[in-house]
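User: Hi! Is it possible to get a structure for several chains at once, not just one? Here's what I have:
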Amino acid sequence: MVTATGRVAVISGDLGVSDRLGGWKARWGIGRMSYIVPPGLYAIGSPGQDAPVLVTANYKMSYDLVRSTMKGHAVWLLVLETYGINVWCAAGKGTFGTGELVRRIGLSGLEKVVSHRQLLLPIMGAAGVKAIEVKKRTGFDVRFATLRIQDLPEYLENGMLTTPAMRELTFCLGERLVLVPMELLIGLKSVLFVGAPLAAAYGVAGADFSLIRFWEALLLYLLAVVCGSVLTPLLLPLLPGRMFSIKGAVLGAAVSAAIFAPLTDSLTRREICAFVCVITSVSAFYAMNFTGSTPYTSPSGVRREMGRSLPLMAGALGVAVAILLAGIFTA
Amino acid sequence: MKGFRYLSNVATLRLDRETCVGCGLCLTVCPHNVFTLQAGKASIIDLDSCMECGACALNCPVKAIVVDAGVGCASGMINQWLAGFNIRFRKDSGCC
Ligand code: SF4
Ligand code: SF4
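Assistant: Yes, the chains can be modeled jointly so their relative placement is included. Here is the combined structure:
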């Protein structure tokens, strides 16, 4: 559509197959870093001079969510250059920040397109955007509207009132589930570098190299990764302990107990001990890794958790390696 | 946050009530309801739920709040720490 500053792209509120497939791929880390849209001003519906202006990041998944949520409304959408990072992470880095917002307002000629002076930002953007400075430099009022994009229609219908629920963070099963693929992929990478050598050592330990023993051990390692990176995130509020590593360790220990209890006759005590050490510490490690994806863990807390639990994990792995080596040399 | 609690007594958040002018902006930007307004001034009611995002400190007009802000992410910290020893992995940890 044509505005006072020239043409503005009108975007549709319908997500096509490629948008959905792209979102799914990004969740699995495929081409995630190039999943972007060009920054600038867009029109959803046919907004007039007094239509609200929403601000978001140029991560395509954020942009897609805004346009599908706002389908049927007439609003302006100002997309900031955050290099394909979502609002929350980009605000932490400062790319979704005061400087970029001020620059993008200028580049888009927003003050000529709309007659009012108000921008609606996601609350998660406040870690990067200093509202009073934006006001000083551009004349635009920044309003931190809602945490979730999904609440925007209700917010607008409410006469731009943020209800306590719109300000309250949630981290429900579905919100955790979408994060699991990336966690699992990160965990799987260690199978080659840590899991395979450990399994090989276990394979060698029984006199001749036994392929079956190797695969059994590798499978158990995989299970430990799944415990930490998939089951811990999903069961998060149900697992005991505040530290994520404790949650992961408890789960790892419980799963080991279930597996090895019926096997006490076929495996030696030392072998079982080595397995339990590896499974518990690997599960604890990938559980701890999940702190990076939750919206409530503070850096000071993570630092304390790492200081306490990394030495224990390293110690447990050390015990397992020592048992395995002893097995090789006494075989 | 309902149903979720991380470690206690670690958050570096500090509020100087003398300086605070009671504008309420910190209440607006905080995603964890850490503040409330009491007698025209902000006050911290739930320090342990602070995730140190820094939104309040950045937006406070009179700099009454200080917090050592950052993203709480174990793999990010491990990578930083390894980088100190000149060991680098490809940069695709779970966090941002
Ligand atoms: S740092 Fe973030 S979570 Fe902590 S009080 Fe400030 S706004 Fe709230
Ligand atoms: S933002 Fe600063 S001045 Fe305003 S209420 Fe909070 S602490 Fe007080």
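Chain A has two domains: 2-169, 174-330. Residues 299-330 of chain A form the longest helix (32 residues).

User: Great, thank you!
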